[in-house]
Design a protein that fits this description.
alpha/beta; Rossmann fold; Isoleucyl-tRNA Synthetase, domain 2; Isoleucyl-tRNA Synthetase, Domain 1; 4 domains; six-stranded mixed sheet; 34 strands
């Protein structure tokens, strides 16, 4: 069934964005999925959330742009290719490695496109893009050229975050911090003027001793005051370093003495700048020790650290080692610990934009709104400009040729882009400054340089100004909360400086999908959930139902129980619609539409139960619409499913089953209205089953080619008084059915006469047949309360009270209480006085019983006959045998 409708949607171009449409546009800045591997459960849920919006907005009359797109750049793909082929990028021909990346990505794109289709995602291939295409990379390069001309782009020999495994610079946003336990090594420095005097210094990075240039103590630390202004000799390397006083030193950490190297962490870097130290390079770009490390040159960091510690231990310089918890910066892609290296890089100025970005964030609607705080915290924490160059292969080439003599950069004209400086000639023959030779850049852009122009690409920036003015800013950016500091932030930076405007009106944040036990999903842990496994069992709609239960902005474990619940909802909807459609099957469309119009104009009187369900339907439509407008999908589905199951199926359909084949206009109007409305309300969430229902039962009447481009439901009735009366009919039937169930009477069993005692009999006159046929009663009549009597019927002993006091006389007492000639008289006395006194005539004398020891038993009669009765609001339901 699902495949059939997927084929239909594709053939009929149901989801195609129409650039010439007069409908208002709703543009979705769909996250281009990394082409690094197939979808897991988290991706399936995340993209399904976005699909909810696209489908809902189409039904609200918008011309929706929801592009099928893929991110085909950067380290995620490079690292996977290296792992797949067991190679290292640096040891492979550049363009052959790029070819392998393209081939790898292409296979994943094909598979993910298939998966998107399987899960019913309504992405539009007519506005397809992938970020490694020349047409896309061209815009990335043009945006770079424009920002360069604005003075926003510069090149500097500045320390940067560096991944030694990937051999590239990283932006601050690409550094992930992880808790780790390392060793804090306390080692001995020697006073330069007194070989016998030793100073303990604690460090986690002994391999950086070769670049130690300074030692610092706190100015108020009495232990080391005499050291300030002297010099110490570093262990192993014997290098003289001065001692300074600095208030940034933590007296309680380690020994309270700090060695300052180039470069262990950001604090080292702050001191390097403060004291004007040289940027000595003890570690190279590949994570190996340089010539400054002497005998340790060429060793990797781990090997060098172990060897230095071993040598210090032999020489008695290592005092002790302790476990030390650290929050270590790692590469976002390969999770290698980062280093700080001074390597020439291209930067985009962002530090001077903090207030601009924060003001822009206030112009954007955030769902959930608390996510805006994360952007503010990130912006306020920034200390470096954005390093946009990467020393990799598979990404957009930086369009620059630099003079080998004077270093002047030469950029192409915009019309010349896309260019690859490793293959293409420079825009001019020689340097325009000194006539020197020009060499093309071998660096590429950070992948976020491509991703952060998706709002510009989608809106035809620099390609169609009329369309751009119509579509920009985009309507919605959906994304995960973990990339606020990257994709959201960088898109805002680019949008502001390239257009002067925000990139979108609204941003919608999804959370993570966790393993069923609530822990993060990782393939390495073996707890990743493959959504296709559950799709094979349940299909797409039940998985989408689970996605709808996941509130925005929160992390959720994968819950198979919600997938199973979704499967039940799918079956319930189909079976319920099949039953409801009996009321109008076989009617010609023109005749049905005329009948519906007659009811709308008030020519046909609806019954109270019809008014009740139509009123409840209208409130459900209002609630669902309100929640969908604010992307609270869980509330939409909960409201609609509860209405469908608990009100329509459990009550209304039971009540009108007897009317289904009578061609009653009111019944037909009601069943058609709610029968069509329910699948429409669920269509964004359960697209396959709702299309099946629509095509089978409603398309011939309504005429829309697909439910997904039909009109979203509107409220049809607001009648509080009518709803109250109809609710009373439903409550009467529910109370009688409950009575049957409690008394082990089959629900389908026939009943005797039912008498409804009410002060407003006119309210129920038109519902008597509905009540009678539903509960299988012989007759249902409206009566007054005058003939209903409550009479005393005897006494019931409370043995727990009587036993302890009258254990030996119990038989005699019970004989009197059950005496047919005395029990009514005694019951009247107990009811009137609260006590009774009598002599059981067992030789023990009179006894006095209170209402705690014995209870008055009462029964009801109607016209002198014993009856059961139920109270329903202000009504009394009398049940005759």
């Amino acid at each position: 069934m699902e495949t059939r409708w997927q084929d239909f949607w594709e053939k009929e171009s149901i989801y195609r964005f129409d650039p010439s449409s007069d409908k208002p546009p709703f543009t979705i800045d769909n996250p281009p999925r990394y082409a690094s591997g197939p979808l897991h459960a988290g991706h399936a849920v995340h993209y399904t959330h976005i699909d909810f919006v696209a489908r809902y907005k189409r039904m609200r009359g918008y011309n929706v742009m929801f592009p099928l797109c893929f991110d085909v750049n950067g380290m995620p793909i490079e690292v996977r290719v290296e792992k797949k082929y067991g190679i290292h990028m640096r040891e492979y021909d550049r363009h052959e490695f790029i070819r392998l990346c393209e081939e790898f990505a292409s296979g994943n794109i094909e598979e993910m496109t298939r998966q998107f289709r399987i899960f019913g995602e309504s992405m539009d291939p007519s506005v397809y893009y992938q970020t490694d295409a020349k047409y896309y990379r061209r815009l990335t390069q043009i945006s770079f050229i424009r920002l360069f001309k604005q003075g926003r782009i510069y090149k500097a020999n500045h320390p940067v975050n560096w991944c030694p495994r990937c051999g590239t610079a990283l932006a601050e946003s690409e550094v992930e911090y992880r808790d780790n336990i390392t060793k804090l090594n306390t080692i001995l420095f020697t006073a330069a003027n007194d070989p016998e005097k030793k100073v303990e210094i604690a460090t986690t990075r002994p391999e950086l001793l070769c670049t130690c240039q300074l030692v610092a103590v706190h100015p108020d630390d009495e232990r080391y005051r005499e050291l300030v202004g002297t010099e110490l000799l570093t262990p192993v390397f014997g290098r003289k370093v001065p001692v300074v006083a600095d208030e940034a030193v933590e007296r309680d950490y380690g020994s309270g003495v700090v060695m300052i190297c180039t470069i262990g962490d950001k604090e080292d870097l702050r001191w390097v700048f403060k004291y004007g130290l040289k940027m000595e390079k003890g570690i190279d770009e590949h994570g190996r020790m340089t010539e400054l490390a002497g005998p340790y040159q060429g060793m990797d960091l781990k090997e060098a650290r172990q060897k230095i510690i071993e040598d210090m231990r032999k020489e008695g310089i290592l005092v002790k080692q302790e476990d030390n918890p650290q929050n270590v910066g790692t590469c976002w892609r390969c999770h290698t610990n980062i280093e700080f290296l001074q390597v020439p890089q291209w930067f985009l100025k962002i530090l001077d934009m903090k207030e601009e970005i924060l003001r822009m964030s206030d112009e954007i609607t955030w769902w959930p709104d608390f996510m805006k705080v994360r952007l503010r915290e990130w912006v306020e924490s920034l200390t470096w400009d954005w390093v946009i160059s990467r020393q990799r292969y598979f990404a957009t080439p930086i369009p620059v040729w630099e003079c080998t003599a004077c270093g002047k950069p030469h950029l192409p004209e915009e019309e010349q882009c896309y260019v690859d400086p490793t293959l293409d000639p420079p825009p001019v023959p020689v340097c325009t400054e000194c006539g020197g030779e020009l060499k093309g850049s071998e660096e590429v852009f950070d992948t976020w340089m491509d991703s952060s122009i998706t709002p510009l690409y989608n809106t035809f920036w620099i390609r169609d100004e009329e369309m751009f003015s119509k579509l920009y800013p985009m309507s919605l950016r959906p994304q995960s909360h973990d990339i606020i500091r990257t994709w959201a932030f960088y898109s805002m930076v680019r949008g502001k400086k390239l257009t002067g405007k925000r990139p979108w009106d609204t941003i919608m944040m999804g959370g993570f999908i966790l393993a069923p036990d609530g822990t993060p999903m990782h393939a390495s842990k073996g707890n990743a959930v493959d959504p296709l496994e559950y799709h094979r069992i349940y299909g797409a709609d039940p998985i989408r139902f689970y996605a709808a239960t996941c509130t925005l902005g929160k992390d959720h474990p994968f819950r198979i129980k919600d997938v199973k619940r979704g499967s039940q909802v799918v079956r319930k909807l189909y079976n319920m619609e099949k039953l409801m459609s009996r009321a109008f099957s076989g009617i010609e469309p023109a005749d049905l539409l005329a009948m519906l119009e007659s009811v709308r104009k008030g020519h046909v009187e609806l019954k109270p139960a019809d008014i009740w369900i139509l009123h409840r339907y209208s409130r459900t439509v209002e609630e669902a619409t309100r929640s969908a407008d604010t992307y609270q999908f869980d509330k939409v589905v909960r409201a609609v499913v509860d209405f469908m199951w608990l009100e329509v199926a459990d009550h209304y359909l039971e009540l009108v089953k007897g009317r289904l084949d009578r061609r009653d206009p009111g019944t037909i109007y009601t069943l058609y209205t709610i029968g069509l409305g329910i699948p429409k309300l669920l269509a964004p969430f359960l697209p396959h089953i709702t299309e099946e229902v629509y095509q089978e039962h409603y398309r011939r009447f309504e005429g829309a080619k697909s439910i997904h481009i039909s009109r979203w439901p509107r409220p049809v009735m607001s009648d509080e008084e009518g709803e109250r009366i109809g609710r009373s009919v439903v409550d009467i039937i529910a109370s009688i059915r409950r009575h049957k169930s409690e008394n082990k009477i089959p629900l389908g069993a026939d009943m005797g006469a039912i008498r409804l005692i009410t002060d407003s009999p006119e309210e129920l006159e038109t519902s008597l047949e509905d009540i009678r046929s539903t509960i299988k009663a012989r007759d249902v009549t409206l009566e007054t309360s005058e003939e209903l009597r409550e009479v005393l019927d005897g006494l019931d002993p409370v043995f727990s009270e009587l036993g302890p006091r009258y254990r030996t006389r119990m038989r005699s007492i019970l004989r009197v209480l059950n005496d047919p000639t005395r029990k009514i008289e005694l019951a009247e006395e107990l009811d009137r006085e609260g006590t009774i006194t009598f002599d059981p005539e067992d030789g023990g004398g009179p006894v006095t019983l209170t209402s705690d020891m014995v209870k008055v038993r009462k029964r009801w009669t109607f016209r002198g006959r014993s009856v059961s009765h139920l109270t329903v609001g202000n009504l009394i339901v009398v049940l005759e045998e």
